[in-house]
Amino acid sequence: MNEELKQAANAVFLLESQGIKFYENVCKKDEIFDQILVVRRSGLELLKPYADPADPQVFYALACEDLDACFIKALNYELELNAFYENLTDGLGDENFKDVCFRLWATSNNEYIPALKAKLAQILSVQFQSASNAQEEQAQTAQNQSENILNAFDSSSFNQISQTLERISSGQIGRAVQQECR
User: Fold this and answer.
1) Global pTM?
2) What is the mean pLDDT of the chain?
3) How far apart are CA 10 and CA 26, in angstroms?
4) What letters, b where the CB count within 10 A reaches 16 and e where it falls short, cover 71-97?
């Protein structure tokens, strides 16, 4: 095996191993992550004849607390990995290794990414709906408070206020105040 192929295989193995470490850390958050982890592990087995096994301690886990953040990180990982595969296979001559890389790329591109996007869209839709419902509740509460204020006044109070405002606007109050001050 030539040195260029060995370097490419080691790079792929490292990236795939990093993805496995990420999915191991989030697999309990959603079933999709667990399913991807199982398939990724089998894909790593296909790479072993080409690469030097990486030390699993080398990888750091991409941390994420919120489920939507986990899906976003997973999507980013898959998209970056796909771009890497697309650029990598152009310059390689080993057809068997190209085939393994193509299978890994195709699974990610055709299976993982659509599933992750669909689930993220579902999560964001629920969050958007919840936020929309909260805004409607706030608007309804404000409307109810306005109606309560209006109900607190009886019609004679409104008449008094209206009459006072009419006198102010016509200047009658101003003249009355001036006469009282003299």
Assistant:
1) 0.66
2) 80
3) 25
4) bbbbbebbeebbebbeebbeeeebeeb
